[in-house]
Amino acid sequence: MKxxxxxxxLVFALFAALQYNDSDPLGWILVYGAVALCCLMAALGRSNxxxxxxxxxxxxxxxxxxxxxxxxxxxxxxxxxTGSMKAEEExxxxxxxxxxxxxxxxxxxxxxxxxxxxxxx
Length: 121
Prior knowledge:
Blueprint: H1 2-17, H2 25-43, H3 49-75, H4 90-117
Helix pairs in contact: 1-2, 2-3, 2-4, 3-4
């Protein structure tokens, strides 16, 4: 688990670093950075159950706010979101943000399962 959590920490730290040129970087840097920090803490055996649970709730709520746009994209027939780095249409940015939060939520759910099933964490 240490290797997995360390790898996740590096990946989410990289995600955070790549947000500096986004149109709304602060929230993304904070959320990806917080996920990276939680993963690093888990890799070091220093998980905080309440921090993990709180961040999981924040990520899930943020993701749910983007769910209508994601569903709209699905109903549109899932047009490409990879044509260019610049989002020419609104659904492109919404879907990319939703998927980024989905990845963050998966990492956080992994940490929830790990920290809450381990009485010593």
